[in-house]
Amino acid sequence: QVQLAESGGGLVQAGGSLRLSCTASGTILSLNTMGWYRQAAGQQREQVARITSGNTATYADSVTGRFTISGDTAKKTVYLQMNSLKPEDTAVYFCNGILGRREYWGQGTQVTVSS
Asked: Per-block average pLDDT, block size 10, for the chain (115 residues)?
């Protein structure tokens, strides 16, 4: 069994910051890629950012310049620093981990940005 546990969500005013954390535990030693997705009410889940075992980070256009992903796939941890938050960033944020053909998901953490 593999579990991903997120923390750090909450309510923040527009322009504020939040930092999300995710740690994977279970029967794996490492992950190839870890990342963050989000799903707003009534919307499809979308990728926000991801980081590879080679420390290459990619971002959705909507968060480039505001969000920073960091972490260590070998240690199965990933973070998402979110700055200059906007109301449209409101969503449930999910941690994601990939090892080979297997994909793992966290339960999600709510981020709400008030205007």
From this structure: 94 98 91 96 97 95 98 93 98 96 96 97
